[in-house]
Write a structure and sequence with these properties.
This protein is mostly helical. It contains nine helices and no strands.
Length: about 200
């Protein structure tokens, strides 16, 4: 009789992941809302929840910036914010964040193929606006060589219609995505299977 070994459960983080029953009530409720909305709880949320109150503080800063909120309306479009998040995640070679933001950008664009093209090289995507291209260039510079952000670069951004408030928000988004990229890389967060189930072409 042939027996089959049970494969070990795939880990989602290098560090321990809090069990659902050990989560603080506020985080457990947040996970329940997320699962009801998305159909699953992303691995990055499960892994980052180890921080407890720190997890809550991080998300209180991250989500309004990236997704917007009634109390803190964004000055950039959701499309612009997701393009920036995608470009930063690719620049940092964060596999989890790359998959997450390409999926998110594909949904915003209604075209997952275009989202993948942005991830490959935003400079070759003619469908991007001048604003989006310059914001992406800023994302690369601030990620790799922040000391090269200059007065001339700021003037280029202003020249395509970005206000100082827009630019400040872009800098904050680029910076917080860099932070979450680095946390995800350090923890070795495993990309969710759901991120690879998205269509590759334009939404119907």
């Amino acid at each position: 009789m042939t027996t089959h070994e049970t494969l070990p459960e795939t880990r989602i983080s290098r560090l321990k992941v809090p069990a659902p029953e050990d989560l603080p009530p506020t985080i457990a409720e947040f996970f329940e809302r997320t699962e009801a909305l998305e159909g699953y709880v992303p691995n990055w949320l499960k892994a980052f929840a180890l921080g407890g109150p720190g997890f809550t503080r991080l998300n209180a800063y991250l989500f309004p910036l990236l997704l917007g909120s009634p109390d803190s309306p964004s000055t950039l479009t959701l499309r612009e914010r997701e393009i920036v998040a995608t470009v930063v995640s690719v620049a940092n070679r964060c596999s989890y964040c790359h998959a997450l933001h390409v999926d998110g950008l594909g949904k915003v664009l209604g075209d997952h193929r275009l989202a993948h093209r942005v991830a490959l090289d935003h400079r070759e995507v003619t469908e991007l606006t001048d604003r989006e291209r310059l914001l992406s260039d800023l994302a690369i510079t601030l990620t790799h060589t922040p000391g090269e952000v200059s007065d001339a670069r700021i003037e280029e951004l202003r020249a395509v219609g970005l206000s100082d408030e827009d630019i400040y928000e872009a800098v904050q988004i680029i910076s917080i995505i860099n932070a979450t990229n680095r946390i995800s890389i350090a923890l070795g967060v495993l990309p969710d299977a759901e991120l690879f189930a998205a269509p590759t072409g334009p939404a119907q």
